[in-house]
Amino acid sequence: MTRIVRRRYLALKVDSAEAPDSRAVSDAVWGAVLGLFGEIGASQAGLYMVGSDKEKSYVLLRCSHKALPMVRAAVASITKVGGKPAAVHVLRVSGTLKALRAKTVSTQ
Amino acid sequence: MKFVDMHLCVPWDSLELARRLIAKSVELGYSQIGVPLPLNVKDEAVSRLRQVSDELRSDFVTRLDLAPRGPGELLAGLRRFRRSFEVVSVFCGSKAVARQAAKDRRVDLLCFPSFSPWKGFFDRGEAELASVSGASLEVDLARVLSNLEVNSNVGFLSRLRREVTTAKSFSVPVVFSSGASEPLLLRKPHDYAALALLLDVDASRALKALSENPAKIVERNRLKQSPDYVAPGVRLVREAGKR
Fold this sequence. Notes:
The structure holds two protein chains of two kinds. The N and C termini of chain A lie far apart (41 Å). In chain A, helix 1 (22-45) packs antiparallel against helix 2. Chain A has one domain: Ribonuclease P, Pop5 subunit (Alpha-Beta Plaits, 2-Layer Sandwich). Chain A has a five-stranded antiparallel β-sheet. Chain A is globular, with a radius of gyration of 13 Å. Chain A is an alpha+beta fold. Chain A is 41% helix and 33% strand. In chain B, helix 1 (15-27) packs parallel to helix 2 and helix 4 packs parallel to helix 5. By secondary structure, chain B is of the alpha/beta class. Chain B has one domain (3-235): Metal-dependent hydrolases (TIM Barrel), CATH 3.20.20. Chain B starts with a strand and ends in an 8-residue tail after the last strand. In chain B, strands 1-2-3-4-5-6-7 form a seven-stranded parallel β-sheet, sandwiched between helices. In chain B, strands 8-9 form a two-stranded antiparallel sheet. The longest helix of chain B is centred in the middle third of the chain and has 17 residues, at 153-169. The A-B interface holds A 15-16, 35-36, 69-70, 72-73, 75-77, 79-80, 85-87, 89-90 and B 28, 144-146, 148-149, 151, 183-188, 190-192, 194-195, 197-198, 203.
Protein backbone atom coordinates (compact mmCIF):
# COMPACT_ATOMS: atom_id res chain seq x y z
CA MET A 1 0.00 0.00 0.00
CA THR A 2 1.32 3.43 -0.90
CA ARG A 3 1.63 5.76 2.02
CA ILE A 4 0.25 9.23 1.50
CA VAL A 5 2.84 11.97 2.06
CA ARG A 6 1.51 14.45 4.59
CA ARG A 7 2.21 18.03 3.69
CA ARG A 8 1.85 21.45 5.21
CA TYR A 9 1.13 24.66 3.36
CA LEU A 10 2.48 27.94 4.69
CA ALA A 11 1.43 31.47 3.83
CA LEU A 12 4.42 33.77 4.21
CA LYS A 13 4.31 37.53 4.38
CA VAL A 14 7.41 39.38 3.23
CA ASP A 15 8.12 42.59 5.08
CA SER A 16 10.56 44.83 3.19
CA ALA A 17 10.88 48.30 1.71
CA GLU A 18 9.92 47.06 -1.77
CA ALA A 19 7.96 43.97 -2.73
CA PRO A 20 10.41 41.26 -3.83
CA ASP A 21 9.58 38.73 -6.54
CA SER A 22 8.63 35.20 -5.59
CA ARG A 23 11.87 33.81 -7.03
CA ALA A 24 13.92 35.89 -4.58
CA VAL A 25 11.75 34.73 -1.66
CA SER A 26 12.08 31.11 -2.76
CA ASP A 27 15.88 31.51 -3.00
CA ALA A 28 15.98 33.10 0.46
CA VAL A 29 13.98 30.21 2.00
CA TRP A 30 16.12 27.59 0.24
CA GLY A 31 19.28 29.42 1.31
CA ALA A 32 18.12 29.57 4.93
CA VAL A 33 17.18 25.86 5.04
CA LEU A 34 20.48 24.88 3.41
CA GLY A 35 22.50 27.16 5.67
CA LEU A 36 20.89 25.96 8.90
CA PHE A 37 20.17 22.28 8.24
CA GLY A 38 22.44 21.37 5.33
CA GLU A 39 21.66 19.38 2.21
CA ILE A 40 20.15 16.44 4.10
CA GLY A 41 17.75 18.75 5.91
CA ALA A 42 16.84 20.55 2.71
CA SER A 43 16.20 17.25 0.92
CA GLN A 44 13.86 16.14 3.73
CA ALA A 45 11.98 19.44 3.75
CA GLY A 46 10.29 18.87 0.38
CA LEU A 47 10.05 22.60 -0.25
CA TYR A 48 7.95 23.81 -3.15
CA MET A 49 6.74 27.28 -4.03
CA VAL A 50 3.02 26.96 -4.69
CA GLY A 51 2.17 30.53 -5.58
CA SER A 52 2.57 34.16 -4.70
CA ASP A 53 0.84 37.50 -4.69
CA LYS A 54 3.34 40.28 -5.33
CA GLU A 55 0.86 43.07 -4.56
CA LYS A 56 0.02 41.76 -1.11
CA SER A 57 3.62 40.47 -0.83
CA TYR A 58 2.70 37.02 0.36
CA VAL A 59 3.96 33.68 -0.81
CA LEU A 60 2.49 30.18 -0.50
CA LEU A 61 4.95 27.42 0.25
CA ARG A 62 4.61 23.66 0.64
CA CYS A 63 6.75 21.42 2.81
CA SER A 64 6.69 18.00 4.43
CA HIS A 65 4.74 18.01 7.72
CA LYS A 66 7.71 16.47 9.53
CA ALA A 67 9.95 19.27 8.35
CA LEU A 68 7.56 22.05 9.43
CA PRO A 69 9.51 23.12 12.58
CA MET A 70 12.69 23.17 10.53
CA VAL A 71 11.14 25.26 7.77
CA ARG A 72 9.58 27.68 10.26
CA ALA A 73 12.97 28.16 11.96
CA ALA A 74 14.63 28.74 8.60
CA VAL A 75 11.94 31.23 7.55
CA ALA A 76 12.30 33.13 10.84
CA SER A 77 16.06 33.37 10.34
CA ILE A 78 15.80 35.18 6.99
CA THR A 79 17.10 38.75 7.23
CA LYS A 80 17.61 39.50 3.52
CA VAL A 81 15.58 38.80 0.41
CA GLY A 82 17.18 39.54 -2.95
CA GLY A 83 20.11 41.19 -1.15
CA LYS A 84 17.86 43.73 0.59
CA PRO A 85 16.93 43.78 4.28
CA ALA A 86 13.65 41.97 4.86
CA ALA A 87 11.73 39.90 7.37
CA VAL A 88 9.53 36.95 6.49
CA HIS A 89 6.60 36.17 8.78
CA VAL A 90 4.52 33.00 8.74
CA LEU A 91 0.89 34.11 8.43
CA ARG A 92 -0.82 30.73 8.50
CA VAL A 93 -0.09 27.03 8.30
CA SER A 94 -2.62 24.57 6.97
CA GLY A 95 -2.95 20.97 5.85
CA THR A 96 -4.65 21.84 2.58
CA LEU A 97 -4.12 24.58 0.09
CA LYS A 98 -7.85 25.29 -0.06
CA ALA A 99 -8.07 25.93 3.67
CA LEU A 100 -4.90 28.01 3.63
CA ARG A 101 -6.21 30.23 0.84
CA ALA A 102 -9.52 30.67 2.65
CA LYS A 103 -7.83 31.53 5.97
CA THR A 104 -5.29 33.86 4.35
CA VAL A 105 -7.99 35.74 2.43
CA SER A 106 -10.09 36.09 5.58
CA THR A 107 -7.17 37.54 7.58
CA GLN A 108 -5.90 39.90 4.86
CA MET B 1 -1.45 33.88 25.65
CA LYS B 2 0.04 37.28 26.49
CA PHE B 3 3.41 37.77 24.83
CA VAL B 4 6.14 39.98 26.22
CA ASP B 5 9.11 41.45 24.41
CA MET B 6 11.37 42.24 27.30
CA HIS B 7 14.07 43.95 25.24
CA LEU B 8 12.92 46.28 22.52
CA CYS B 9 15.69 48.77 21.80
CA VAL B 10 13.47 51.80 21.28
CA PRO B 11 15.44 55.00 20.64
CA TRP B 12 14.22 57.26 23.43
CA ASP B 13 15.35 60.41 21.59
CA SER B 14 13.56 59.70 18.27
CA LEU B 15 9.86 59.48 18.87
CA GLU B 16 9.02 58.62 15.25
CA LEU B 17 11.25 55.52 15.14
CA ALA B 18 10.06 54.59 18.62
CA ARG B 19 6.45 54.72 17.44
CA ARG B 20 7.27 52.57 14.38
CA LEU B 21 9.03 49.96 16.51
CA ILE B 22 6.30 49.81 19.15
CA ALA B 23 3.57 49.69 16.47
CA LYS B 24 5.34 46.82 14.71
CA SER B 25 5.76 45.00 18.00
CA VAL B 26 2.04 45.34 18.77
CA GLU B 27 1.14 44.26 15.20
CA LEU B 28 3.20 41.10 15.66
CA GLY B 29 1.32 40.19 18.82
CA TYR B 30 3.27 41.53 21.82
CA SER B 31 1.18 43.18 24.49
CA GLN B 32 3.96 44.15 26.88
CA ILE B 33 7.32 45.67 25.91
CA GLY B 34 10.41 46.26 27.99
CA VAL B 35 12.35 49.34 26.88
CA PRO B 36 15.92 49.85 28.10
CA LEU B 37 16.43 53.41 29.27
CA PRO B 38 19.72 55.21 29.93
CA LEU B 39 20.53 56.28 33.48
CA ASN B 40 20.36 59.98 32.64
CA VAL B 41 16.99 59.75 30.89
CA LYS B 42 14.62 62.61 31.62
CA ASP B 43 11.17 61.93 33.02
CA GLU B 44 9.61 63.80 30.07
CA ALA B 45 11.20 61.40 27.56
CA VAL B 46 9.93 58.41 29.54
CA SER B 47 6.42 59.81 29.81
CA ARG B 48 6.39 60.55 26.05
CA LEU B 49 7.39 56.95 25.30
CA ARG B 50 4.81 55.69 27.77
CA GLN B 51 2.17 57.82 26.08
CA VAL B 52 3.08 56.44 22.63
CA SER B 53 2.93 52.94 24.06
CA ASP B 54 -0.47 53.58 25.68
CA GLU B 55 -1.83 54.98 22.40
CA LEU B 56 -0.78 51.76 20.67
CA ARG B 57 -2.28 49.67 23.49
CA SER B 58 0.94 48.22 24.70
CA ASP B 59 2.05 47.87 28.29
CA PHE B 60 5.28 49.85 28.76
CA VAL B 61 7.91 48.36 31.07
CA THR B 62 10.94 50.43 32.09
CA ARG B 63 14.17 48.51 32.03
CA LEU B 64 17.72 49.28 33.06
CA ASP B 65 20.68 47.61 31.36
CA LEU B 66 23.69 47.69 33.64
CA ALA B 67 27.11 46.91 32.15
CA PRO B 68 29.45 47.25 35.15
CA ARG B 69 33.21 46.80 34.95
CA GLY B 70 33.41 45.09 38.32
CA PRO B 71 31.26 43.73 41.18
CA GLY B 72 31.63 46.99 43.16
CA GLU B 73 30.24 49.05 40.29
CA LEU B 74 27.36 46.59 39.94
CA LEU B 75 26.45 46.85 43.62
CA ALA B 76 26.63 50.65 43.51
CA GLY B 77 24.43 50.74 40.41
CA LEU B 78 21.86 48.41 41.95
CA ARG B 79 21.77 50.36 45.20
CA ARG B 80 21.22 53.62 43.36
CA PHE B 81 18.88 52.70 40.52
CA ARG B 82 17.04 49.45 41.37
CA ARG B 83 13.91 51.19 42.64
CA SER B 84 13.62 53.52 39.64
CA PHE B 85 13.16 50.76 37.05
CA GLU B 86 10.75 47.86 36.76
CA VAL B 87 13.28 45.41 35.33
CA VAL B 88 17.05 45.33 35.81
CA SER B 89 19.29 43.42 33.48
CA VAL B 90 23.04 42.95 33.92
CA PHE B 91 25.39 42.52 31.02
CA CYS B 92 28.00 40.14 32.41
CA GLY B 93 31.24 41.08 30.68
CA SER B 94 33.47 39.28 33.18
CA LYS B 95 33.22 36.26 35.42
CA ALA B 96 33.37 38.36 38.61
CA VAL B 97 30.42 40.48 37.46
CA ALA B 98 28.52 37.37 36.36
CA ARG B 99 28.94 35.71 39.76
CA GLN B 100 27.92 38.83 41.69
CA ALA B 101 24.89 39.40 39.43
CA ALA B 102 23.76 35.78 39.73
CA LYS B 103 23.70 35.86 43.52
CA ASP B 104 22.03 39.26 43.89
CA ARG B 105 18.26 39.09 44.34
CA ARG B 106 17.85 42.57 42.85
CA VAL B 107 18.99 41.38 39.42
CA ASP B 108 16.21 40.12 37.13
CA LEU B 109 18.01 39.20 33.94
CA LEU B 110 21.49 37.97 33.14
CA CYS B 111 22.85 38.72 29.66
CA PHE B 112 26.07 37.36 28.31
CA PRO B 113 28.26 38.82 25.57
CA SER B 114 28.39 37.36 22.09
CA PHE B 115 31.97 38.45 21.33
CA SER B 116 33.47 35.27 22.72
CA PRO B 117 31.52 32.48 21.04
CA TRP B 118 33.16 29.50 22.69
CA LYS B 119 33.72 30.84 26.16
CA GLY B 120 30.65 31.63 28.21
CA PHE B 121 30.26 32.67 31.82
CA PHE B 122 26.92 30.91 32.32
CA ASP B 123 28.26 27.61 33.63
CA ARG B 124 26.92 25.24 36.31
CA GLY B 125 28.16 27.39 39.21
CA GLU B 126 26.53 30.47 37.75
CA ALA B 127 23.27 28.59 37.12
CA GLU B 128 23.20 27.31 40.70
CA LEU B 129 23.56 30.84 42.07
CA ALA B 130 20.91 32.17 39.68
CA SER B 131 18.47 29.41 40.64
CA VAL B 132 18.69 30.51 44.30
CA SER B 133 18.45 34.26 43.67
CA GLY B 134 15.66 33.98 41.08
CA ALA B 135 17.52 35.65 38.20
CA SER B 136 16.66 34.58 34.66
CA LEU B 137 18.86 33.98 31.66
CA GLU B 138 18.06 36.33 28.81
CA VAL B 139 18.67 35.43 25.17
CA ASP B 140 18.40 38.22 22.61
CA LEU B 141 17.14 36.60 19.43
CA ALA B 142 18.13 39.57 17.24
CA ARG B 143 21.73 38.69 18.10
CA VAL B 144 21.08 35.13 16.90
CA LEU B 145 19.67 36.53 13.64
CA SER B 146 22.63 38.89 13.14
CA ASN B 147 25.11 36.10 13.84
CA LEU B 148 23.40 33.84 11.31
CA GLU B 149 23.74 36.65 8.81
CA VAL B 150 27.48 37.01 9.19
CA ASN B 151 27.91 33.23 9.04
CA SER B 152 29.86 32.90 12.28
CA ASN B 153 27.03 31.13 14.00
CA VAL B 154 28.56 27.74 14.82
CA GLY B 155 30.39 28.72 18.00
CA PHE B 156 27.73 31.20 19.06
CA LEU B 157 24.85 28.73 18.63
CA SER B 158 26.83 26.03 20.41
CA ARG B 159 27.45 28.34 23.38
CA LEU B 160 23.83 29.48 23.54
CA ARG B 161 22.59 25.89 23.37
CA ARG B 162 24.92 24.93 26.21
CA GLU B 163 23.75 27.87 28.32
CA VAL B 164 20.07 27.15 27.75
CA THR B 165 20.59 23.47 28.60
CA THR B 166 22.46 24.41 31.81
CA ALA B 167 19.64 26.80 32.74
CA LYS B 168 17.10 24.03 32.21
CA SER B 169 18.98 21.56 34.39
CA PHE B 170 19.10 24.06 37.27
CA SER B 171 15.51 25.30 36.74
CA VAL B 172 16.69 28.81 35.89
CA PRO B 173 13.95 30.53 33.87
CA VAL B 174 14.94 31.53 30.34
CA VAL B 175 13.60 34.71 28.77
CA PHE B 176 13.65 35.10 25.01
CA SER B 177 13.51 38.70 23.90
CA SER B 178 13.97 40.36 20.56
CA GLY B 179 16.75 42.84 21.34
CA ALA B 180 15.68 44.48 18.09
CA SER B 181 16.56 48.06 17.26
CA GLU B 182 14.80 48.08 13.89
CA PRO B 183 11.41 46.72 12.77
CA LEU B 184 12.91 44.22 10.31
CA LEU B 185 14.61 42.34 13.15
CA LEU B 186 11.27 41.72 14.88
CA ARG B 187 9.48 38.41 14.45
CA LYS B 188 6.17 36.99 15.67
CA PRO B 189 6.29 35.09 18.98
CA HIS B 190 5.62 31.80 17.19
CA ASP B 191 8.43 32.53 14.72
CA TYR B 192 10.81 33.18 17.60
CA ALA B 193 9.61 29.92 19.17
CA ALA B 194 10.45 28.17 15.90
CA LEU B 195 13.88 29.81 15.90
CA ALA B 196 14.44 28.45 19.41
CA LEU B 197 14.59 25.02 17.78
CA LEU B 198 18.19 25.96 16.92
CA LEU B 199 18.88 26.08 20.66
CA ASP B 200 17.21 22.70 21.30
CA VAL B 201 14.26 24.34 23.01
CA ASP B 202 10.87 22.83 22.24
CA ALA B 203 7.97 25.05 21.16
CA SER B 204 6.06 24.98 24.48
CA ARG B 205 9.14 25.97 26.51
CA ALA B 206 10.02 28.64 23.98
CA LEU B 207 6.52 30.14 24.15
CA LYS B 208 6.78 30.13 27.94
CA ALA B 209 10.09 32.00 27.64
CA LEU B 210 8.29 34.60 25.52
CA SER B 211 5.23 34.98 27.71
CA GLU B 212 4.97 33.51 31.20
CA ASN B 213 8.59 33.91 32.37
CA PRO B 214 9.01 37.62 31.51
CA ALA B 215 5.44 38.45 32.62
CA LYS B 216 6.18 36.94 36.06
CA ILE B 217 9.26 39.17 36.46
CA VAL B 218 7.29 42.31 35.64
CA GLU B 219 4.41 41.32 37.91
CA ARG B 220 6.75 40.52 40.81
CA ASN B 221 8.63 43.82 40.46
CA ARG B 222 5.49 45.92 40.10
CA LEU B 223 4.18 44.34 43.26
CA LYS B 224 7.46 45.19 45.04
CA GLN B 225 7.29 48.78 43.83
CA SER B 226 3.69 49.26 44.94
CA PRO B 227 3.20 51.20 48.21
CA ASP B 228 1.34 48.22 49.71
CA TYR B 229 4.38 45.96 49.55
CA VAL B 230 5.98 45.19 52.90
CA ALA B 231 8.20 42.12 52.43
CA PRO B 232 8.20 38.99 50.23
CA GLY B 233 4.77 37.40 50.80
CA VAL B 234 3.57 40.28 53.00
CA ARG B 235 1.32 42.97 51.58
CA LEU B 236 -0.67 45.71 53.21
CA VAL B 237 -4.34 44.90 52.71
CA ARG B 238 -5.94 47.50 54.97
CA GLU B 239 -4.59 49.93 57.52
CA ALA B 240 -5.83 49.59 61.09
CA GLY B 241 -8.77 51.87 61.78
CA LYS B 242 -9.66 52.17 58.08
CA ARG B 243 -12.45 50.31 56.38
